[in-house]
């Protein structure tokens, strides 16, 4: 039987650098994860492409997906829905490939319930002051949205105990290297455990 891939979940507060770190990870030539493109009702930002950054949906379309049980998880974040397409994730894992989700914490909690064996990584800002700087510098949000995102950030950081690893995003290169190293180590750990288990059965 084909061995299943690993489900890798990266989350952390808005503005911490998840998207930037994810892109750095995926720009490595030997990256073998498959990125799961999320669905959202948020308006596309300048330069964002449907089917690349997100699948952009109307609220009605998104609620249809919820009703048809087509989402592995979903959450409302600062007034918009975000969700992970379940078929893509299951099919990709079944084909033996690792799937990489970049999602906020409420969604990650739902994934933990359905895939307790997943690898959950929380990206931390060096400080809340630096987090605010990053959201402001990115320049994609109005002042109200920045305030709301910072309020969410405090609640999100309180949920870091849910995660297997906490990685600081002080520098993009370092953070992405840490994440790649964690995934590699996790693969070794799981393979070794299974190997030991098989050996045990042989002795019996
Ligand atoms: N639960 C959930 N959150 C998601 C999903 N896709 C993106 N997000 C999160 O939704 C939040 C807002 O995303 P976005 O509007 O793109 O802003 P940004 O990540 O701050 O650039 C971020 O924390 C994303 O990681 C998803 O499929 N499910
Ligand atoms: N390690 C870092 N040091 C300084 N700035 C960063 C770092 N990581 C990301 N940024 C910047 O912070 C802003 C938010 O990053 P982004 O990837 O959009 O965050 P998120 O996806 O978590 O909301 C962007 O302007 C990005 O260039």
Automatic annotation (TrEMBL):
Catalyzed reactions per annotation: GMP + ATP = GDP + ADP
Parts of the chain that traverse the membrane: none
Gene Ontology CC annotations of this record: cytosol
EC number: 2.7.4.8
UniProt keyword annotation of ATP-binding present: yes
Keywords: ATP-binding, Cytoplasm, Kinase, Nucleotide-binding, Transferase
Ligand binding (ATP): 12-19
Top-level enzyme category: transferase
SMART domains membership: GuKc
Domain Guanylate kinase-like: 5-184
Domain of life, per lineage: Bacteria
Molecular function terms, GO-annotated: ATP binding; GMP kinase activity
Pfam families tied to this protein: Guanylate_kin
Family: Belongs to the guanylate kinase family.
Protein name: Guanylate kinase
